[in-house]
Each structure stands twice: as C-alpha cells, then as structure tokens.
Amino acid sequence: MREFTEKHHAFIAATFYDLLTKRYGRRGEAAFILATQRYAEQRGNRMAQRAIRDGKASISQLFTFFFSCSTFSDLRQITNFEPTT
C-alpha cells in the first residue's frame, strides 16, 4: 500500500472545499473554514501534549497549549493536574 503524502492531503482538502462551496455556497465555505480551524486546534493540542509527554516542550508550545484550553477543567483533565489546596 502506498503512503499518503502532503499532496494527497491537499488534494482531498481542496476537493472537499470545491464540493462544499459549489453545493452550499457561502455556508459551505464557512463550514470548511470552521472545520479547518477546529482541526488545526486539535492538531496543535496533540503536538503540544506529545511534546510535554516526551519532555521536549518549549515555553511557547506550553503557553499556546495552556491558552487553547477553554477552561481550567479542560487543562486539568488533559494533564491530570490537580491543584493543591
């Protein structure tokens, strides 16, 4: 089996964008943009978590990861952090 490259991923995304905008117009474009942003946030979080796990996280990565969590409970759940009282 052949592996997918970045060109394959780009083709799939571009085709999906084309189909969405042709069928749904501006709503399709808005949906694509939202989905792309959500995917980028999730991917960034996975990368930051992996860096933390592997001990390779830089301060900027940790800062980005911390502020991408919508609430402190999200951060606590992801990192298994429990504050001391």
Q: Keywords, please?
A:
85 residues; mainly alpha; 0% strand; disordered C terminus
Explain what this protein looks like in three dimensions.
With 85 residues, this protein is an all-alpha fold. The chain is built from four helices and no strands. Helix 2 packs across helix 3. The longest helix has 29 residues. It is elongated. The C terminus is likely disordered.
Task: Give a nutshell description of this structure.
The protein is mainly alpha-helical.
- Tell me the total number of β-strands: 0
Biggest pleated-sheet summary: none
Rg from Cα: 17 Å
| Low-confidence spans | 78-85
Shape: elongated
- Beta-strand content estimate: under 5%
Q: What percent of residues adopt helix (DSSP H or I)? A: over 70%
Would you spell out the secondary-structure blueprint of this structure?
Blueprint: H1 6-24, H2 26-54, H3 59-68, H4 72-79
Helix pairs in contact: 1-2, 2-3
